[in-house]
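Journal club side-thread
Mid-discussion, someone asked how the predicted structure for our own chain would compare to the paper's figures. Pasting it here so we can look after the session.
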Amino acid sequence: MQLSQASAEKIMKDMCMEDMPLISMQPTPHQMPADWFTRYKKARHSFMQSLGESIEELAFMNLSQEEFMDLLMGRALPANTSIRMRVPICWGGEISPDNMFMCSTFPHSQNIDRFIIGQAGNETIWLPAPAKKIYIPAHTAGGGEGGNATEDRLAQMAAQFAASRGME
């Protein structure tokens, strides 16, 4: 069934992701380049290293210092974390950090998969298009009074990371 923008937004709302912007596209199958996986791994590594710009979002992920450093060094993703392509490679999406975003695997990445797969065969597909590199739903991003010790800790770790790389 072809979705309208309103019906696509309702599905996202039902999945508690109503703050996720959507873009429409007409999927056209593209040939996967022979070296796609090698290029993907390189782009994924670059994407992970670029997450130092996203300290506010990282603070809400409640990462340990080891997970935080592994992520920013491009070594490993934390458990229950996925890197997604904004536009799938098979539909012409670029293998580039600019075409990637990160979110929790459960439930967000799994819900996004269900949402996209549910549109199979449609002339127009609605794709999630978060504004930032890390998708944190608005209903989980609010904080209470008293500050955020995790954010403070991650800000200090990010400053140390930047200093160690001469990025001050």
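Post-session note: Residues 143-147 have pLDDT under 50 and may be disordered.
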